[in-house]
Write a structure and sequence with these properties.
The protein is an alpha+beta fold. Strands 7, 8, 9, 10, 12, 13, 14, 17 and 18 form a nine-stranded antiparallel beta sheet that branches.
Length: 712
Amino acid sequence: MPGIVPTPPAPRPPGAQRAAPLRTPQPQPVHSSLICLALPALAISPADGQLRGEGLNGYYREGRRILSRCEVRVAGAEPLIVQGRLTAADRARFVGTVRRAGERGPDPEVHMERLRRADGTERLTFRSSAARALRLPVEIRLGADLTELGAVAIGLPGPELRAAVHGSGLRWSGPGAHAVVTATPAPDDALASAGLLRWELDLPAAGHRTIDLRISLELPAPGHGEDHRTAQDRPTGGAPSGLDDTGRPGSSRPLAPRPRAARPPRPWTPARLECDDARADALLAAALGDLNGLLTRDPATPMDLYIAGGIPWRPGLAPADALWSARMLLPLGTRLAAGTLRALARTQLAAPGADFGRIPGPLRDAGPHTPPSCTGVEATLLFPVVLAEARRWGLPDHETARLLPAAERCLRWLRSAGTSDGTAHPVSYVPDPAPDGPHRCETQAHAHRAALLGADLLDAYGYPDAAALRDWAAQLRTRFRNDFWLDDRSGGRPAALRTADGRPLPHLGSAAAHLLDTGLLGDGTHAPGLLDSARTAQLAALLGSPALDSGWGLRSLSAKESGYNPFGHRSGAVRIHETAVAVAGLAAAGHEKAASALVKGVLDAAETFGHRLPEMYAGEQRTAGSVPVPHPAACRPASVAAAGAVHLLAALAGLRPDVPGGTVAVRPVSSAPLGALQFTGLSVAEQPFAVRISRLGMAMVEEAADGLQLGS
C-alpha cells in the first residue's frame, strides 16, 4: 500500500533454523470419536479405546480433563481391537485379541474386553481359551494434564503432569485439583516417572481375570476456595469447574475426593415407540439416552434441570438450545420446561434500559452473508412460547403463575424492540443483534409467535396488554408480507433478512422453516402465520426442492446460492433442528409429501450415525449408494439434534392438547410415511398418554387422563 514501507526480515545467523510458526488454535475433530456422556462426566476416545494424549481424547469431570492417557499393552504389544461401540449413551465396549510370542495358527487364544463408563470406571477382562494356564504381562500407561475442556477443544492442551504413586495407583497434582487413578487388584509395580502400572496376570486354563480402574477428581473441600461467580462470569470454554482460579499445586487448602453426585432423575416420561420401521424406535431410544446424558442441574438451584448444549463445544447452559430442547420434549412432560424456564428467568436482565427483560446469550456465527446473531434474542422470544405451550400440555397453574412475570418481561422487551422505527409504519421489525438491525426472517417469526402465544397467556391470568400484543402481531404480519416476500417468475421466496437500511437479502436456507412454526394457541388451534396460504405452499415447494432438500435433510443454505458450502454450519450443512421444525410445520400445514420425504431422509442418515444424530452433517446431495458425510466439528451428542429427533417423530402423531380446555386432538400424518406406529409413555395433563396410528393414517387414543376429551 502507498505510504507503508515493509520491514525486511532480520537475517538469520548461518546454520540457524527457522523458528516454527505459532500453531493457530483450531477445533479438534470429533466426528469419529466415541463419546460416553453423563454430565458433568464424560469420556472421549477413538474407536480402538486407547487414550494416547491426542486431540480431545480423555476422561473429563467438572470441565477438566482428568486423564489424557490410558494405553493398554498386553504381552508387549497393543491388543488388536476388532470392535469398539457405544452400548448406551454413557457406556462403551471394546473387544480385542491378544497374540503372544510362539502362538501357532490363526486363532488367538486370548481376547480382551474393555468396558468404559463416563463416570470414570474401566474394567478390563482377559479371557483365555488355552488348554493350559498362562502368565500374561499387562501394562497400562497413564497421563493427566488437568486442562480445561475449552482449551483442549481448540487444540491447546497443557503439558502432562508428573505422577506420584498413590495407594494402589497414581496421582497427578494441578492448579487447585488432583487426579487419581486407583486399580483393583493392586499393580505388581507402579512406576510414577513413566506413569506406568504393571501386572503379571495368571490366567487359568479356559478362565479369565479382570482389572478395574477408577479415575476420580479431588477438589477443594467445601468452604475452601469455592467458585462463587455467576454462570455468566465463568469461563465459557467448558463446564464450570467450581475451582478457585488462584489455586496452585502444593496449596495447603484441603482437597477431598469429589463424591459421585447422583445423576438427576429424568424429568420426562419413559416414552417408547413401536413402528413398522424399527429404525424409528432405535432413533427415539438413542435420542432420549443422549438427552439424559446432557441433563444438567442448575448450580444455583440443583432441583432445576436443563439440557446442556452439546459435547464438546457447548457443555453448559446454552439458552436458546435449552429452550428449544424443552419445547420439543413437551410431549414427554412439562417438568424439564419448568426447570429450564426457572433457570433462565434467574439470568434475565432487570436493570432499567433498552435491554430490560432480555435473556442474555452469546453471539453465534450466522454464515458468510449475514453478521452474527444473538442467541439471547432468540431465547427471549422463545421463553413465553415455551411457557404458553407447556401450560397447554399440562403445566400446573401455580408453576405457570410463578413464571409468568418473567414471560411478561420478555414480552415487554419484544414490544420495546418492535416499536415504531420513525417511518410511517406503526411497528418495527425486531432487530438481531444490534438495535439498528439487521432484521432476520426467522427472528420475525419467533417474535410473531411470541406475541400471539404470549397474549393468550396474559389473557388467561388477567394481565393487561394482551390486545396490544395481538394488534402488534397483526400489523407485523401485514408489513412482513409486503417487505419480506421477494416475487420472481418461479413464485417468489422469503428474504433471509433486511439490512438496517431496508435492503432485502435474498439468500434462501433452512432457517425459513421457522415461518411454518406458528405455534398452537390455548385452544389447540394453530396461530396465524406470517405467510398467507399461497406463500406457505410456495415455501413448502422450496423446502422440498433438491436445492434445499439434500436427501438427508434441509441444507442451511440452498445449493444454488453463492457461498454455498456443504460443510458450512450456516451455509449449506444439514442441521437436524431446523429440519425437524420444517417437518412439524409442513405436516401441520398439510404439505405431507415434503414432510414425509424429510422424515425418511433423516431416518436414513441416523442409521449411518448409529442413531446418535450429530447437530449437523455435510449437505452433499444424496446419490445412489452414498451416505451422509460427517462434519468434523459438529457436537455429537447435541441437545437440539436429539430433541429434534423426538420432535420429528412426534410430529407424525400430530398431538394438539388443550389441557386448560380439557381436550386433546390427534391429527396424524395421513400418509403414514413410516407405516403403523404406537407411542406409549407420553404425557398430557401430567398423566400417561398413548396413541396408535394405523398404516392408513387413522389415530386411536389408547390411554389418556381421566376427563380429557378427544377434540376435533
